[in-house]
Specification:
351 residues, rod-shaped, 45% strand, five-stranded mixed beta sheet, 7 helices, 22 strands, alpha+beta
Length: 351
């Protein structure tokens, strides 16, 4: 049969043939509509990459896709969204930039056994900006909350381990300067605290290779304080009974240092200040050492006097005083006798 004869045969009764084709198509569509059903699932779009690139930083504009599944009604009725995975494979790209990628669907092995089966997606392609996937080791910073008890202060705080490995899109990793721990509550503590904590990751695009344990140590010590005490009386000790001090009383200013709670409760009566007068035996001026005694838990920071200038006078006993008085009386009598003799001699000369 030549071409001309073939065309003539096809065109013969052409209208009837068109009607038959339309009827056949209608019957086919009706059959599929009757026998086949469809389900639509909204699935998260995952990114698959077996290379050094990632597009996770560009996923905000398309997080989900629609997956349309067609098959026999009795089979489709049992299908759930957990049996499908929607993803884009960017492994083929090795340079940064924006590319279009097909949206792929991976059904479960049970769904693959269904016949007939049609799977389509909306959209069929997505545009993604991909960049290099990198990793860094960055420091861990403890998140300290609260304050130690009054009278104590933090002297040091550190984390073990001190660094952690993170990975993700280069633009994200480069912007991260530190990773913080969960809250470390030190409110009201009075001694060094050691706590196990978790790391806080507020960026879902960032992957943290978490250590088996993370330990935060907060070291404490008692706060220090200095306090002044003015005008504390100096007690003169070991003074000989035959000597008296003619100047005084004496006072001193003292400064003590120690732990805040101890110094705050310190009162002047607990400070003893003495001057050792054991070497004073006669009348005169003496330099004697000054000693300051405070509780052992405190330190003496300052004292305004280290030596004291004392004026002393020897006391006279009653016997010695009587002897002196008798000597004075004898001297007085002798003077009066001399004066009397002198007067008689003058009178005789005048006569």
């Amino acid at each position: 049969m030549n071409l001309k004869a073939f065309l003539e045969r096809i065109s013969r009764d052409g209208f009837a043939k068109i009607i038959c084709f339309v009827l056949a198509l209608f019957l086919y569509v009706s059959y599929r509509t009757t026998v086949m059903d469809k389900k639509t699932f909204t699935l998260p779009l995952q990114i698959v990459s077996e290379g050094s690139m990632t597009s996770e930083s560009d996923m905000e504009h398309i997080k989900y896709v629609r997956v349309i599944v067609r098959g026999r009604a009795e089979q489709i009725a049992t299908v759930t969204d957990n049996e499908f995975k929607a993803y884009c494979d960017i492994s083929s790209q090795t340079k940064e930039g924006r590319y279009d990628f097909n949206v792929l669907v991976e059904p479960s092995s049970r769904v693959l056994l269904m016949e007939p089966l049609e799977i389509t997606t909306r959209p069929e392609k997505v545009s993604l900006c991909i960049e290099e996937n990198v990793f860094r080791y960055i420091p861990i910073t403890p998140s300290i909350a609260g304050n130690p008890s009054y009278g104590y202060q933090i002297t040091d705080q550190y984390v073990e381990p001190s660094t952690v490995k993170i990975s993700g899109p280069k633009s994200i990793v480069d912007s991260i300067k530190t990773i913080y721990t969960g809250k470390v509550d030190i409110e009201g503590i009075t001694q060094t605290s050691i706590k196990d904590v978790e790391l806080v990751n507020e960026n879902k695009l960032l992957h943290i290779e978490k250590p088996s344990s993370i330990r935060v140590t907060v070291k404490l010590q008692a706060s220090g304080m200095i306090k002044d005490f003015k005008g504390i009386a100096i007690k003169c000790e070991n003074l000989d009974e035959s000597v008296e001090i003619t100047n005084g009383p004496f006072y001193i200013d003292v400064t003590v240092e120690g732990e805040l709670l101890e110094v705050e409760n310190m009162i002047a009566s607990r400070i003893q200040v003495t001057a050792d007068c054991s070497n004073i035996k006669e009348t005169g001026t003496y330099k004697v050492p000054v000693s300051v005694s405070i509780p052992n838990s405190l330190q003496l920071d300052y004292q305004s006097l280290t030596t004291l200038s004392i004026n002393a006078r020897k006391l006279v006993s009653n016997t010695e005083e009587n002897a002196v008085q008798e000597d004075e009386n004898l001297s007085l009598d002798a003077n009066q006798s001399l004066e009397g003799r002198s007067s008689l001699q003058n009178e005789e000369k005048e006569n």
